[in-house]
Amino acid sequence: MARNLLAIQKAILPLNIVLSRSLTSIWMTTEELHERIVLAGINGALKPAVVVNTLRLHNPDEYFIAKRVHSSDNYYR
């Protein structure tokens, strides 16, 4: 079972590259984005606060990632 889960996790990123933009454009919170980054292979010691600061400081014009606020939560696409 664990071996199947590992295979699925490794296939997520290549699958996202192959799918059309309409199917890969989903809204997610910074926590969900952090989980995806760690799943992609970034060191688990990366804090969610670093992701938040990166989005705030390096994406102010929403050029790379679109931002929307819903019920006082920030969502990114």
Brief summary of the model shown:
This protein has 77 residues and is mainly alpha-helical.
Structure overview:
- With 77 residues, the chain is mainly α.
- The protein has one domain.
- It is 55% helix and 10% strand.
- It has a two-stranded antiparallel ribbon with strand order 1-2.
- Strand 1 and strand 2 form a beta hairpin.
- The termini are far apart.
- The mean pLDDT is 80.
- Helix percent reads 40-55%
- Total beta strand runs: 2
Quaternary form: single chain
- The amount of beta strand, in percent, is 5-15%
Give the overall shape.
Answer: globular
Structural class designation: mainly alpha
For the largest sheet, list the strands in their spatial order: 1-2
